[in-house]
Amino acid sequence: MIGPFSRLEWYLQPRLKEQGLRFEIPYQERIKRHGEQLKRRLHENGINWWDHQLTEYEPFPEYERFPDIWENYASEVGRDPAEFPFWAVTSRSMQYAWGANVGLPLIREMAQNISGHDGVIVNRTRARELGISEGDPITIESAAGTTQGRAHLREGIRPDTVLMIGQFDHWATPLAKDFGVASLNSVTALSLSLTDGTGSGADLMRVAVHKGHLDLKGTDA
Amino acid sequence: MTRWGMTVDLNRCVGCQTCTIACKHANATPPGVQWRKVIDVEMGTFPDVQRLFVVTGCQHCEEPPCVPVCPSGATARRDDGLVTIDYDMCIGCASCVVACPYQARTIVHEKENYYREGATAQELQRPHTERLGVANKCTFCIERVDDGIAAGLTPGKDMDATPACAASCIASALKFGDYDDPDSDVSQLVRDNKTFQMHEQLGTNPRVRYLYEVPATMPGHTPDRDDDAEADPANPLVGKRQHFWDYRAAMNFALGGMAAGLAVVGWLMYLAGFLDTSDMQGVNFAASGIMAVGLFFVFLKLGRKMRFLYVLLRPQTSWMTRETYCVAAFFPAVALTLLAPHPAWFAIAGLAAAGFLISQGQILFTSKGIPSWRAPQVPWMLMATGLMEGLGLLIVITAVLGSAAAANGLLTLAGVGLAMINAYLVLSYKWAGPENGIGPLAMSDINRLAPIIIGVAYAVPGALLAIASAVPVAAIVAGLMAAAGGFTWKFMLVTRICHQQGFALPKVPQRGSGKMAAPARLHPAA
């Protein structure tokens, strides 16, 4: 069992003090510097798309309608943004942490005690409006793909949002490959317009929620 | 004296399930069994919602409802407050499982491993075959506590002598200690904070206390009643149907009660002089046959069939033991009435059958874990319907035997009376349901079934019996309907209207947003 454990082993600050280090400044200018260097190398090869991403990294960001980035994505691929009224988000799972224990049935059993490990969390009132009950099979569709799971109705989520915990769809190892839960990974797009100045992006997607496990045409999932 | 117990701080628990895993590891429990379980609870409606995690498990009650119902004495309470199970004595009847209002107990019948491919090293080393087919639950890590004390350690202070869940809690939400020691963590926490015991109104006096406030800043509050949430099967606070007493147990109530009713009503008619000895022999023979079928089914349900005689060991408290003693008196008495008829044998058989019927009602009534069984109408309902079914069968049997009793006015009059009593009991059971703490899920079953049962089992047979003097065949139809209706009612009561007591939080931490939010601090930080 866990016995007494020095706070020094847990917290960074005492170590920083001990070694006379200071905290990194908030504006990570090296990212900007590397970005500029990358821009020059790309320009040498006739590639210009990075210029747009580079403008995003600012010491004092200007206000922008960030939701538009995701809402407009559907139009880019020839779909109507109004088709996708929900935000899909993801969260980590305390029980799975980094996922190294994903092959343990014991963890699977115990993680079920926490809501959302066996389904997509949907706002209860909104789900009822859509005719979706607890445990119903549902399909989450975005302009980029679909994923399927079971509805888990909760109050503690916005009516315009669905939550898919973890990303369990990429496992090829025993047990985890058969979880059969929905994953945000399957509905996100590898798109430049959704890629930010650090070359990454937010774990977000605009989606539609359909009752039933549908085989939707025109999707690549 | 020592009184082991625990505190659970609802404000500190983060729902990580480390205690759940620590328990599974320390106790090597099989797949699906969690002696310590943390449920994920949500209260309120969007956007005013709060989420909290509730640690559940055996509450090691001062007045544990599981102990008196145990027919073998396997379940007991030690002087230091630990509620224990002797795996070698338990017959696996599940009486304690349905008696526990905290869903703490379970029975696993077959050895299962976590991996299809075979047992892990841990599973091989600790197969715990002694726990198969018997009741099991949280022991407060009794070995760790006892071995720790023997090694000079203090449970609650020394982690090696503390239950695995409390020792592993990452948030110090779980504390274990001696309530009789004023310096123990649990005593201090309970002295300095407001706490509640779950289902305090049931009189179990649990040794697990829940803390719900942050002193001086957040007082905690009484959650709003939420009918919608209480009727939601997906809500972890809501009890689901028990499955430990299945159709096999139900058959004993459905057939055994009917048989006992038949023997009792037959004996009364015999005493009144309306049945002669040979009729009464036939009636008792039929009753014993029906009862034997019911008992055979309940025998099939036992987790440890070869230990069934241990059922006789606790007549001082267990109605299951008493029921078995009635059986032990009934069958030999019936055999004697067949071999050497004598009024005394008939009397013993009749009284034993009455005892059997009373015991059955009490067995359900003392199952405190099932609100729809512990309702005060239940023991009366079981007795009254048993008599009604027995009376119905008596009419049919005597008609088949060609006895004059079939068209007996007293019998039909008694039938009308019993039909009215039964109908009233079922109605009052339905009306008083919510008041008796029966939840919305079980109530919806009751509301759907009760009118049908009242009609088929009591009202129509009662009406038919009222006209039986004019239309003799009506009595036979009434008898068959009463028997079939009563059978169905009891069968449904055991297998469908059997939702476990859920979990309840009379107080919750004050947190969340909107209506759920904590009030402004009295002394805001300067």
**β-strand amount of chain A:** 15-25%
The H/E string of chain B reads EHEEHEEHEHEHHEHEEHHHHHHHHH
Give the strand order, joined by hyphens, for the main sheet of chain A.
1-5-2-4-3-6
Strand content of chain B: 5-15%
CATH architecture of the largest domain in chain A: Beta Barrel
Architecture of the largest domain in chain B in CATH? Answer: 2-Layer Sandwich
Within the CATH hierarchy, at the fold level, what is the topology of the largest domain in chain B? Alpha-Beta Plaits
Biggest sheet layout of chain A: 6 strands, mixed, barrel
Number of strands of chain A: 6
State the CATH topology of the largest domain in chain A.
Barwin-like endoglucanases
The helix/strand order of chain A is HHHHHEHEHEEEE
Biggest β-sheet description of chain B: 4 strands, mixed
Tell me, what is the CATH class of the largest domain in chain B? Alpha Beta
Structural class of chain B: alpha+beta
Distance between the termini of chain A: 45 Å
Question: What is the total domain count of chain B?
Answer: 2
Q: Name the average pLDDT of chain B.
A: 94
What percent of the residues of chain B sit in helical stretches (DSSP H or I)? 40-55%
Radius of gyration of chain B over alpha carbons? 27 Å
